[in-house]
Amino acid sequence: MKFSRILAPVAFSVFVAACGAPETQSQTVSVSAKEANIRSHLEFLADDDLKGRQTGSEGHEIASNYIVSEFKRLGLEPAGDDGTYYQRIPFRKSTLKENSASMTYEVNGEAVEFEFPKEFITGPSHYSEQDQVSAPLVFVGYGMEAPEFGLNDYEGLNVEGKIVVMLTGRPEFLPSEEGAHLSNIKSDIAREKGAIGIITLHTPVREEVRKYETSVYYTKTPRMTWLGPNGLPKGQEQQISGSAYLDDEPAKRLFANAPTELDAIFTKIQEDPDFSPKGFELDGKVTLKRESRHEEISSPNVAAVLPGSDEKLKDEYVVYTAHSDHIGVIKDMSREDNINNGAMDNASGVSVMLETAHLFVESDKEFKRSIMFLSVTAEEKGLLGADYFANNPTVPLNSIVANVNLDMPVLLYDFADVVAFGASHSTLGETVSKAAKKYDTAQSPDPMPEQAIFTRSDHYTLVKKGIPAVFLMTGFNSRTEGEDGGEVWGTFFAEHYHKPSDGLNLDINYEAGARFTNINFAIGEEIANAAQRPQWLEDSFFGKQFND
Ligand SMILES: [Zn+2]
Prior knowledge:
This protein is of the alpha/beta class. The chain contains 16 helices and 19 strands. The strands form 2 sheets. The protein has a 17-stranded mixed β-sheet that branches. Strands 7-8 form a two-stranded antiparallel ribbon.
């Protein structure tokens, strides 16, 4: 999972105080998850031998092989490509060549160079090892299009064949999940409108949250994308052939003759965070150049199916997802421990998924719809394995009725409640609450809405295809006297998240793991046998995007 570091652990104790006591309503259930099974999966997947399960690494291949062998042992049918359990994905890893990026602004017969990386930065291109784009500029405000929120930033502007200039971020009045989604699709909108380049402007408001220098640090990091069966990045023809991130001070030069100066726009958004500036054409043109190095690697998703029992509904699927990759090793060999084992991120989620599969197989109940178990790769590279599956599904996309995602369940305390991301958008919210109740577990509201977690893990790629999804995290209340769940969670996040210490030395609570598995099983069971497939709620933003 990708968390923003803005989060402070102190927020958790505040939340715990606001949280209600868990509701209780016992009910007997036929099968129950076994702690020992979860432990054995987790201890294998988080072992040093797997070297942090980096996408494309041998360690990740071994993890995938382990998952396949578990699927076989459970008697599940293969649901990958060509009758196998594997969906092998070609990836391209692109790196920006040093000193290759340039940005030139031509106006009134004069050419001004912007300095890399002091004034602007750019990432590598996935399309060509050498590229260049030169075009006039159009300022498009935040570059958002969401009429339901009164945002029509492209209205009256023609950006066909131009470079769009947009502010980073978004107006603050947007709800967090909707805002995060609309921010994520900004470049897709620019592309749809016919733009051929994007310049994003750093702002003083952003500087307070994330410094420009922080972004500079990441320019050396390679970026990854998946290649479609047509060999193209994300299966798409190139259209945006240049992009740059420009610091706020130098950006002012582009606005020298503009109807509104950039300074005035910055002041306005500082005074009123809800303000969304209107766009206009800018003088002059910009030329962006860069060189990139490409490397091809491959890494698999792994998929299996338990066929449904109902003649008709068996053609519909409930899909569980859990990412099997993590972030590999830290290059610094002087460290005593340089392996990021990812015990909680996400060996725990995969282990829970495997034991959930076991419960479905072991149960003597019938499940009308088919259940798919999908372990995805390259989550840590930007949800890439899941995105590949969402765009190249091994079963028809409209036959997938719901996604239950498992990412980073923090199994370190005796949780008394769960938080279900996505619960407020679809009928799955009710499904979760019912399932949790069976195990005397309450459902709590999202304790960190500003993180917009609904858009930060694998299920989001399926949500964008219209599939209702939900995923659970352990809530911040504990059943154990004197244990502060929020504090354990917060400490994990602050001290172990994406670090070598997220390993088997943690005090893993397998009893909590078993309960978490039982709840996730009950969610899938409910969806599999419900008369109706899950629906987006009428008044949900995501529902409105996909219901028509
Ligand atoms: Zn992660």
